Amino acid sequence: MTTQTQNDVQKTPGQNGARSYSGVQTYQGGCSCGAVRYEADLDLSTVGRCNCTFCTKYGTTGAIIKPAAFRLLAGKEQLSQYGREGTPNHRCFCKRCGVHCFSEGDLPELGGAFCSVNINTLDDVDPTHLTIGYWDGRNDNWQAGMRPSPWPFKS
Fold this sequence. Notes:
Blueprint (H helix, E strand, L loop, with lengths): L24 E6 L6 E6 L4 E4 L2 H6 L3 E4 L4 E5 L4 E4 L7 E5 L5 E8 L4 E7 L13 E4 L20
Parallel strand pairs: 3-10
Antiparallel strand pairs: 1-2, 2-5, 4-9, 6-7, 7-8, 8-9
């Protein structure tokens, strides 16, 4: 007879008390100090990690949406931005606590203008129940889309 410990059982969203994250739902989130607050309409059934140098160093996992699905509720004056020269993308973070809450950009391969919400800044979301896909941003290989395993740093 075998017994399973709780660590042996993998919860599936919607089962065993785990929340279901599929379908578009409205989520709120913000930075660590509370100065920046936002609301976003997200489908968290698949979220993404990118292997570009910035995303790798920052360690974010993002949910990509159209800008109209993102609403800044508080803290506009506390936001600062970082973006590399010559790129249409910039990361928005709290000047007070340094937490990167979201990115804004424009990539034709992602459907044009987008907002990428850092899912680690969402309230009441358990990231251990999310499916993560991987982007190859380090090699500007956006047209390949996401895949279930990480891309190598060099192709």
